[in-house]
Write a structure and sequence with these properties.
Helix content of chain A: 40-55%
Largest interface: A-B, 19 and 17 residues
Number of strands of chain B: 0
Structural class of chain B: mainly alpha
Largest sheet of chain B: none
Oligomer: heterodimer
Strand content of chain B: under 5%
Radius of gyration of chain B: 29 Å
Structural class of chain A: alpha/beta
Strand content of chain A: 15-25%
Distance between the termini of chain B: 70 Å
Order of helices and strands of chain B: HHHHH
Number of helices of chain A: 6
Distance between the termini of chain A: 66 Å
Shape of chain A: elongated
Shape of chain B: elongated
Helix content of chain B: 55-70%
Strand order of the largest sheet of chain A: 5-4-3-6-7
Chain lengths: 180, 152
């Protein structure tokens, strides 16, 4: 028995390694869960991309839930997410706010011309300060904010049709139950 | 001749690259050495969220640059190190701290190594005791039929 002990310990280690590998295939290992979920969204006041003289603040958006989508013309994944926003998120009827993060307004406008504009409003955050307040660390990211201005859900990375079905739709349904 | 110009072109390119690398770490207008040391010390304790195995001081990522600027501005506003850390933790989770804080959720992380050492110590102690017993009980027969089985 004592002779077998090292072998058993080794097998246990192999088992742990196997578990780790299995775990990593099922989880985004570099995803940092946001501490802001369930908390009020940070205050912001940002100029519109298409009309920089006017600004939109968090208070202006209270009363109805909305989805903030962080994007930039420099972000390759955003190009893949873009048609999905147009085809699968827009029909859900949720107000879609684009947060043009760390981008040049002219680049963003050209990008939107090329790929289309699914947003109800686009806010410009060229120096990224509002992004930092939201805890944004990559693009695309999306935040679901309820009518009271509380962040309910965050997606790090692009939305896929599968994720819209399995995560976004249930979250929207929960919002509707909360305020009939 | 052709080789020489090629060589110089390559050399110029290398220097060009070094220059851009040096500029990638944005020079911040520190007012004195103490402020710079404090900034360096603080950003070494913070993790870059883009390249997650680098600290904020080292990272070349664009977001790291923004966060360094944020840290610098907060230092100028007179915020303490703890306030700056709390600001980042509120947005990015404990993950931005290289040293995870001690709290119920991290007990396993902090204490497992000590528990393993304790278990190891108990095992070693038991083996030593048994050997000591065998040594006193079997001094006469030792050498003739040593049970080498346990001697791994």
């Amino acid at each position: 028995m004592n002779r077998l002990l090292p072998l058993l310990a080794f097998l246990a280690l192999i088992g742990l390694l196997g578990f780790g590998m299995w775990w990593n295939t099922r989880h985004e290992t570099n995803e940092v869960p946001s501490p802001l979920i369930g908390k009020p969204a940070p205050e912001f006041k940002l100029p519109f991309l298409y009309d920089s003289a006017k600004a939109l603040s968090k208070n202006d958006l209270l009363g109805k839930p909305y989805l903030v989508n962080v994007f930039g013309s420099w972000c390759a994944t955003c190009q893949y997410e873009h048609p999905i926003l147009t085809q699968s998120v827009k029909p859900l009827g949720i107000k879609l706010i684009g947060l043009n993060w760390k981008d040049q307004p002219d680049d963003a406008k050209r990008w939107l011309q090329q790929f289309g504009d699914p947003y109800d409003a686009i806010l410009a955050d060229p120096d990224g300060r509002t992004g930092i307040d939201f805890g944004v660390y990559m693009a695309p990211e999306s935040f679901l904010v309820d009518a009271q201005g509380v962040i309910r859900y965050k997606r790090i990375g692009m939305f896929t049709p599968e994720l819209i079905e399995s995560e976004l739709k249930p979250q929207l349904a929960k919002l509707q139950q909360g305020s009939p | 001749m052709k080789h020489a110009s090629l060589f110089f072109a390559a050399l110029a390119l290398c220097f060009g690259l070094f220059v851009t690398a040096a500029h990638a770490i944005d020079p911040l207008p520190f007012k004195d050495r103490a402020e710079e040391v404090r900034f360096q010390k603080l950003t070494r304790q913070l993790r870059c969220l883009v390249c997650q195995n680098q600290d904020l001081a080292d990272s070349d990522a664009d977001l790291a640059k923004d966060l360094r600027k944020q840290v610098f501005d907060m230092m100028r506003e007179g915020k303490s190190d703890d306030e700056i850390k709390a600001f980042l933790v509120a947005r990015y989770n404990d993950f931005v701290l290289y040293d995870p804080p001690l709290k119920p959720g991290t007990y396993l992380l902090w204490f497992t190594p000590f528990a393993l050492v304790a278990i190891g110590a108990v095992v070693v102690l038991r083996i030593l005791r048994r050997r000591a017993r065998q040594a006193t009980g079997e001094t006469v027969t030792r050498g003739a039929s040593n049970n080498g089985d346990d001697d791994w």
